[in-house]
């Protein structure tokens, strides 16, 4: 389950953050390209990254995100663009260590990025969702699929895809819209 190349962590959030700014057809095209790339060998110096060690619900969710090649900063950036959640990178570390409680909003937003039904993630974490959350927006569904597929990329492949996703935007934007409408 470990990502192929831990160095790809630098590029993974950018692939997705640029992709969600694209029209649906271009997001699908990017996803198909990622899926078509050859699986490279693990680097000879590969060592599994130390993941969140807390056994509680927060630790489990943060580990799930880490398995998608996201560090705390990548989590903060990606969730700010794809969901209404805007937290500091350090806060994700606190959540992973069990120092911050998972809220229904966090569970819903984590589920969207992970590509998991929010009610299932709520069941896994023990968080009570008082309301049935709406289905994830198409951008969030595509973001989750792309994030999952990108975990098998080498750092060089991830950098290439991130640069391609940025160029596909074609708007010359230097930043990202936070909490995209419909996401």
Question: How many β-strands, per DSSP?
Answer: 0
Please tell me what the overall shape is: globular
By helix and strand content, what is the structural category? mainly alpha
**What is the first-to-last residue Cα distance?**
27 Å
Estimate the helix proportion, in percent.
40-55%
Q: Over the alpha carbons, how many angstroms does the gyration radius reach?
A: 16 Å
> Which sequence of SSEs, written as H and E, runs from N to C?
HHHHHHHHH
Strand content: under 5%
Count of domain modules: 1
Largest sheet: none
Average pLDDT figure: 88
Q: What ranges have pLDDT less than 50 throughout 5 or more consecutive residues?
A: none
Per DSSP, the total helix count is 9
List the helices and strands and how they pair.
Blueprint: H1 12-19, H2 24-36, H3 57-66, H4 72-82, H5 89-97, H6 104-114, H7 118-125, H8 138-150, H9 155-169
Helix pairs in contact: 1-4, 1-8, 1-9, 2-8, 3-5, 4-5, 6-7
Description of the molecule:
The protein is mainly alpha-helical and 183 residues long. It has one domain (6-36, 54-169). It contains 9 helices and no strands. It has helices spanning 12-19, 24-36, 57-66, 72-82, 89-97, 104-114, 118-125, 138-150, 155-169. The model has no long low-confidence stretch (mean pLDDT 88).
Tags for this entry?
183 residues, mainly alpha, 0% strand
């Amino acid at each position: 389950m470990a990502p192929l190349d831990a160095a790809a962590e630098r590029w993974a959030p950018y692939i997705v953050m640029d992709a969600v700014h694209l029209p649906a057809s271009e997001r699908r095209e990017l996803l198909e390209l990622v899926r078509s790339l050859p699986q490279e060998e693990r680097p000879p110096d590969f060592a599994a990254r130390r993941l969140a060690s807390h056994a509680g619900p927060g630790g489990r969710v943060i580990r799930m995100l880490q398995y998608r090649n996201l560090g705390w900063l990548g989590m903060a950036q990606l969730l700010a663009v794809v969901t209404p959640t805007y937290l500091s990178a350090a806060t994700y570390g606190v959540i992973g260590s069990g120092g911050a409680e998972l809220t229904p909003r966090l569970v819903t937003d984590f589920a969207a990025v992970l590509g998991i039904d929010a009610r299932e993630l709520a069941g896994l974490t023990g968080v009570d969702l008082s309301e049935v959350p709406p289905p994830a927006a198409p951008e969030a569904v595509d973001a989750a699929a792309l994030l999952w597929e990108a975990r098998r990329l080498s750092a060089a492949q991830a950098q290439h895809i991130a640069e391609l996703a940025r160029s596909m935007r074609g708007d010359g934007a230097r930043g990202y819209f936070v909490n995209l409408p419909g996401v």
